[in-house]
Design brief:
Blueprint lengths: L3 E5 L7 H17 L2 E7 L12 H10 L3 E5 L1 H4 L4 H13 L1 E7 L12 H11 L2 E5 L3 E2 L2 E2 L2 H9 L3 H8 L3 E8 L4 H5 L4 E4 L9 E9 L2 E10 L12 E6 L10 E11 L7 H20 L5
Parallel strand pairs: 1-2, 1-4, 2-3, 4-5
Antiparallel strand pairs: 6-7, 8-9, 8-13, 9-12, 10-11, 10-13, 11-12
Helix pairs in contact: 4-5, 6-7
């Protein structure tokens, strides 16, 4: 492999803090004619609150002309800081530069820090560039903070910290047809089980084969029709779309939360509320405040 400039981390969400690191990575790659690489980690079986799937991360990095490689954490968790650098970083990726955030930790029990990496760089012939953390209102931008906001449905804040709208992508699966019976046909999305899904009713843009549609999505447990609340359903109603969406790939951009999901006494009451939700959504788009 040609010599690389590489950065290491989970990079869940690829938020604005991550983008600062990646901007430095790209700057060095261009200046030194190096291959820019992001080294990240596969989700474990305990990962259930991801901001984006591994495939979504790879696709976004590809748009930025960056190669992504993923390691299985179980293959490296036992390695000391030097073993990780020598046997993984140097032997497999041949770095000339390593770009990291100022709080970077690595190696067994996270015992390695920035100072240790710089010393190892001297030994194994690479330089280390440290990027300061990015703050928003005096608070560090981090994946964990974004997850907290997402669970609360604060989409404007989430999207500001991500630097783009929060995405949910998946294939349309068979639903129970209740939306059509109410007069609002929906596309039911099947998604990665590890993705963090905020519950409620949201204003959304829907992407399909390069086309955009305005719409509304309910993410939740269908409490009006079901007493079981352990399964999360994603039901999207697209405005001005006619056609069969079954088995089609869709991407939802969540722009704003309208309300919490709630149980209605009758389907007629639910229908009236959906009509209000749709009116509010159309007013949102007509007002020119899409993002």
């Amino acid at each position: 492999m040609r010599r690389t400039v590489i950065t290491i981390g989970n990079f869940d969400g690829l938020h604005r803090g991550h983008q600062r690191v990646i901007s430095e990575l790209k700057r060095i790659a261009k200046k030194k004619n190096l291959v820019p690489v992001v080294l990240t980690f596969l989700p474990t079986k305990y990962s259930s609150t991801l901001l984006m799937s591994g495939e979504g991360k790879k696709e976004l990095l590809k748009k930025w002309n960056i190669k992504m490689y993923s390691l299985n954490p179980e293959d490296i968790f036992h390695l000391s800081a030097e073993e990780f650098v020598r046997d993984t970083l140097v032997k497999k990726f041949n770095p000339e530069y390593v770009v990291i955030g100022e709080k970077f930790r690595f190696g067994y029990l996270r015992r390695g820090d920035v100072s240790a990496l710089k010393k190892l760089g001297e030994k194994y012939n690479f330089q280390v560039r440290t990027v300061p953390l990015l703050k928003n209102n005096k608070e560090n931008i981090s994946s964990s903070n974004i997850r907290k906001l997402l669970k609360k449905g604060k989409m404007e804040e989430v999207n500001n910290l991500l630097g783009r709208p929060y995405e949910i992508s998946g294939r349309v699966i068979l639903g129970d047809g209740r939306g059509s019976k109410l007069g609002f046909p929906t596309a039911n999305l099947g998604v990665n089980s590890g993705l963090l899904l905020p519950r409620g009713v949201f204003i959304t843009k829907v992407l399909k084969n390069g086309h955009q549609y305005q719409g509304i999505v309910n993410i939740g447990a269908q409490p009006t029709f079901s007493t079981q609340n352990y399964k999360t359903n994603i039901e999207t109603h697209l405005f001005s779309y006619r056609g069969n969406l079954y088995q089609k790939e869709l991407t939802l951009l969540l722009l704003k939360k309208i309300r919490e999901e709630k149980k209605f006494f009758t389907p007629s009451d639910l229908k009236k509320q959906i009509e209000k939700d749709i009116l509010q959504t159309k007013n949102f788009f007509q007002g020119g405040s899409e993002l």
